[in-house]
## 1
Amino acid sequence: MNRLSGKVALITGGGRGIGRAIALRFASEGAAVMLAATKREPLEATAQEVRKAGGRAATTVADVADEAVVKQMIAATLAELGRLDILVNNAGIGGPTLRVVDMDRADWDRTLAGELGEHGITVNAIAPGAVRGERVEGVIAARAAALGRPADEVERELFVEPTALKRMVGPDDVAATAAFLSSDDAANITGETISVSAGFRA
């Protein structure tokens, strides 16, 4: 399937986890990918995977919290890949495992974001459930420590049992949804939040 043939995608947080899975999926569907993140090593590793599979990939080290760096990231994409059709805002942080009233202002400012789509550009959000990988493992460990309970019990009780499918989500599940939303098959879907959570209900 080449639903993204001829398109260029910029994927932030593209070196590991969900970003890596999205990059590999987009490349398999024909897109050239620019991978951005704060650390070069995982970016280059993912880019090599894309290239070995016959895809086209470039990388740029960027912190999306810095507006000037974001502009450089866009310019690098245009310079190296010639255009920009798809932006995947995947970069994120684990965030503190705290109640909102216990957060300091710096942490609060880092968990806020806003997007607006105009001029026929579709803008959608994917709301994944707990996605297996390093980040959620850290969240589970922190929650277990806070509760004074074993991590496997916390994972089962708080992250698996509340789902309809009794499992956590994989990075490839999120990547498949991102590929669909970036394709012409989803041309009339915009302003939506798509849940990929295995039916999580708190």
## 2
Amino acid sequence: MAFIETRLLDCVAYGTQGGPTWATLRVPLRSGVVRRKARRSQPLYRFLLLYNNLQLVSHEDVIAAFNAARGGLHSFRLKDWSDFEATDEEFATGTGAGQVVQLTKTYTFGDQSLVRIIRKPVSGTVTLTADAAPLAATVDYTTGIATFTTTAAAVVRWSGEFDVPVMFESDELMFAANNRGPAGLFLTADVGLIEDISV
């Protein structure tokens, strides 16, 4: 299996769904109390893309992606329209020496927080700052790793866009011919995707 550094077609229809899922073990006790235990340390993102009335060129793009990825074998990039940006995300503290640090995004609610690893930033969108001043850095857009040097104790933040690495959930892709236009039939498909956490 391989990773294809290309984003799947963005022109999804209203009704497209997607977001994080968790796996929680729930054990109800006789007292009515429910004991809970997390089965994963990170969320797993799932999506159901609706492609409605695709123009011929867009239909060909989806077919090409599905066949080149050999169904669920290879993974690729997807823009999650509900969560694709980071703004002034603190992810490191300067040491005064060269550093190699993974980009992350932190989600906080009350006294709980989760640090999500960002593995597929979008090329050309990432900027770094150290104590609010621009920081020269090298960002690997295939891994989300930033390389930089800054003063000790400086707060390092990043802003930019990111994709989710995903794979087709099924090895079948079925299109329905629902409408006809001047150039012929418009095709529609529902495409299930699941995050690839192995990349």
